[in-house]
Write a structure and sequence with these properties.
The complex is a heterodimer of chains A (about 110) and B (about 110). Chain A contains no helices and 11 strands. Chain A is mostly beta strands. In chain A, strands 2, 4, 5, 9, 10 and 11 form a 6-stranded mixed beta sheet that branches. In chain A, strands 1-3-8-7-6 form a 5-stranded antiparallel beta sheet, with no helix packed on it. By secondary structure, chain B is an all-beta fold. Chain B is built from no helices and 11 strands. In chain B, strands 2, 4, 5, 6, 9, 10 and 11 form a 7-stranded mixed beta sheet that branches. A 4-stranded antiparallel beta sheet of chain B has the order 1-3-8-7, with no helix packed on it. Chain B is globular. The chains are: A mainly beta (about 110), B mainly beta (about 110).
């Protein structure tokens, strides 16, 4: 079966750096997405990786290794507003999105 | 309208009642989706539509039906609601390039 694993919950301190890992086993690969979801709101797009390597966008970066079935989302200079759930999703060979259960990130002052 | 709208925002429904959740997008995306999100289970696909006039079943389709008469609208119907259908329902659409998915604000449904 297809599976995406991410930690259920992580805690970090304001101003610090945190890395959220995502491992996947899917039928084929056509891109990996990271979404942010604040409590009570809809998911919003953060980043997209289809080739190996690092994609940087401001304080957020996302890394992909297709051979290892692995990605991470790196958040720098954490702010209280970064408290949210972070969802990893992989597009499989049928172009269907397979979703992880999400990582709840708690930021402490 | 900008993006995706859903109605109602929230609803409390008696078991056995019929309910239609509405979804409209103005981005002219071909593909649309209905997800439910429950604590600890993440997003689960109920039904999808790759283009107007076609629909398909997702991971958890039982008890739900959809139609896609045009590009913009994708309603989800619960024929006879049951308490296990208590959830937050998200409608989404995706562009054809990267398949980037855009979500509506969600409908919080409680079935008693």
């Amino acid at each position: 079966g297809q599976n995406i694993d991410q930690p259920t919950e992580m805690t970090a301190t304001e101003g610090a750096i945190v890395q959220i890992n995502c491992t996947y086993q899917t039928s084929g690969f056509n891109g990996l997405f990271w979404y942010q979801q604040h409590a009570g709101e809809a998911p919003t797009f953060l980043s997209y990786n289809v080739l190996d390597g690092l994609e940087e966008k401001g304080r957020f970066s996302s890394f992909l290794s297709r051979s290892k079935g692995y990605s991470y989302l790196l958040l720098k200079e954490l702010q209280m507003k970064d408290s949210a759930s972070y969802l990893c999703a992989v597009r499989d060979s049928n172009y269907q999105l397979i979703w992880g259960a999400g990582t709840k990130l708690i930021i402490k002052p | 309208i900008a993006g995706i709208t859903q109605a109602p925002t929230s609803q409390i429904l008696a078991a056995g009642r019929r309910m239609t959740l509405r979804c409209t997008q103005d981005m002219r995306h071909n593909a649309m989706y209905w997800y439910r999100q429950d604590l600890g289970l993440g997003l689960r696909l109920i039904h999808y539509s790759n283009t107007a006039g076609t629909t398909g079943k997702g991971e958890v389709p039982d008890g739900y039906s959809v139609s896609r008469a045009n590009t913009d609208d994708f309603p989800l119907t619960l024929a006879s609601a049951v308490p296990s259908q208590t959830s937050v329902y998200f409608c989404a659409s995706s562009d054809s390039d990267r398949g980037l998915m855009y979500f509506g604000p969600g409908t919080r449904l409680t079935v008693l």
